[in-house]
Each structure stands twice: as C-alpha cells, then as structure tokens.
Structure to design on (165 residues):
C-alpha cells in the first residue's frame, strides 16, 4: 500500500496546489515544467521567452527582446554596439580628464591653505614652561648636598620656544 492510497483525495489536491516541489508549466508558455519554487529563477535566468535587455544597455543600446533572440541581436548589431562602446569610452576619457583637473586644482588650493596655516602658526610666539619630573627627588637632593652625586642626566628638552621673525 503506498502513501497516496492512504491520503484522502481532498488533501492530495490541496498539497498539489501548495507544494513548492510540484512541477508547474512556465508562465511564459515556453513548454518547460519547473518546480514551483524555481519559477522565479527560471524566468530570470533560463526561460528563452523572457523579455531581456541587450547586454550593451550600459553602452546605450536600448533594445529588448526574448532571450532566445539574443544571439541574433548581438550578431546583427555588432557595428552599432562597437560605435556605442567607442562613444562611451571617449566620454569616459573626457570625464576622467576633467576629474583629474578638478583634483589637481583642489590639491593646489589645499596646499596653499596648509602653507598659509603654517605661516600663521610660525608668526605666533609660544612660551611653554616644561616641568622636569625627577624621580626620587629627595634622595637625589640629599646626595647632591652630601657631594656624592652632583649631576642628573635626562633626555634633552626645551624650556620654551620662541618663533623668530
């Protein structure tokens, strides 16, 4: 006894209408039977009767045709596609040259602004008092008073900086 014989017919009909794995005919009537869950994929990527745009749409070809006719279109429109591609390349080169020029001008302005900020900073006088922190100061002071150690070494530092005019 198989499973279909044990199920009521009304449940089987409902299952067939809802089952994602059940093969259904292509909505474009291409003749293919596709699992219900794969219909969208079939229409977007496989169905020969789906209306698609020319692969040269980014170059300016606005033709649409059924997928089955793509090869024919590509062969018959090779010349116009080449013309569109050349025009697109020329426009892209012009756009690139203009963008490079704008970038060069912006860099010059930024460099000039940075140089001006540096000049203004150099004109100002800065006086900074640096604090020299000496570890174990009492011990070192005591050693200095007793004549044991009369000097302390440190990394070089500035006590104040003055800009010259």
């Amino acid at each position: 006894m198989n499973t279909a014989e044990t199920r009521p017919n009304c449940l089987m009909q409902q299952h067939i209408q809802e089952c994602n794995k059940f093969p259904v005919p292509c909505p474009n009537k291409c003749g293919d039977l596709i699992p219900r869950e794969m219909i969208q994929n079939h229409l977007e990527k496989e169905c020969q009767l789906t209306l698609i745009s020319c692969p040269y749409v980014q170059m300016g070809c606005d033709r649409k045709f059924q997928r089955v006719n793509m090869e024919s279109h590509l062969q018959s429109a090779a010349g116009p596609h080449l013309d569109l591609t050349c025009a697109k390349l020329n426009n892209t080169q012009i756009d690139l040259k203009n963008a490079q020029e704008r970038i060069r001008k912006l860099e010059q302005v930024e460099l000039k602004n940075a140089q001006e900020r540096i000049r203004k900073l150099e004109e100002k006088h800065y006086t900074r008092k640096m604090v020299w922190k000496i570890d174990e100061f009492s011990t070192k002071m005591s050693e200095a008073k007793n004549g044991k150690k009369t000097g302390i070494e440190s990394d070089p530092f500035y006590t104040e900086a003055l800009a010259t005019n």
